[in-house]
């Protein structure tokens, strides 16, 4: 916890894809939800791990900056289960706190108790969504498109 009191996040089955992160109590727009935590690794290491994760059908990699990535697979918290949406209700914000790079997750809108958390994974033209992600998106066209985990999200 680095920005104040974090919100209670629940883990549950998502109607979008696999598991999802849900907010326990109502939250106001702009409030801090928690930190996206994990192991700080280089992009070179993220490339290696990403290939293994893609074969397994999941990934919890999150680009921090042009040098580092956060891998939440082993050391992450429940926020790693927030699914993708092109109309998200929360957003990541990169910060430099106490000499460390951090990713805070904030409410983009007022959130109701029990609401599933979504943010935009920000794929670029250089990053192609893996096949398992696209397959999930096609199955859930009428809903928010999701994946089984984090696929190199970007802090904006």
Describe the structure.
It holds the Pfam family SET. GO terms for molecular function: chromatin binding; histone H3K27 methyltransferase activity. This is SET domain-containing protein. It comes from Trifolium subterraneum (Subterranean clover). InterPro entries: EZH1/2-like, SET_dom, SET_dom_sf. The chain is of the alpha+beta class and 156 residues long. It has a single domain, classed as Beta-clip-like (Beta Complex). The strands form four sheets. A four-stranded mixed β-sheet has the order 4-6-5-11. Strands 3-9-8 form a three-stranded antiparallel β-sheet, with no helix packed on it. The protein starts with 8 loop residues before the first strand and ends with a strand. 37% of the residues are buried.
């Amino acid at each position: 916890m680095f920005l104040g009191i974090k919100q209670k996040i629940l883990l549950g089955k998502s109607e979008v894809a696999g598991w999802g992160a849900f907010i326990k109590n109502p939250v106001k727009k702009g409030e801090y939800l928690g930190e996206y935590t994990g192991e700080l690794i280089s992009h070179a290491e993220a490339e290696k791990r990403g290939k293994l994760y893609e074969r397994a059908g999941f990934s919890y990699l999150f680009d921090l900056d042009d040098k580092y990535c956060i891998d939440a697979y082993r050391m992450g918290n429940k926020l790693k289960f927030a699914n993708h949406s092109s109309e998200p209700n929360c957003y990541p914000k990169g910060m430099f706190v106490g000499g460390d790079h951090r990713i805070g997750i904030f409410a983009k809108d007022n959130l109701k108790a029990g609401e599933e958390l979504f943010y935009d994974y920000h794929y670029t033209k250089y990053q192609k969504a893996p096949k398992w992600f696209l397959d999930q998106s096609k199955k859930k066209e009428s809903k928010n498109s999701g994946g089984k985990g984090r696929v190199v999200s970007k802090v904006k």
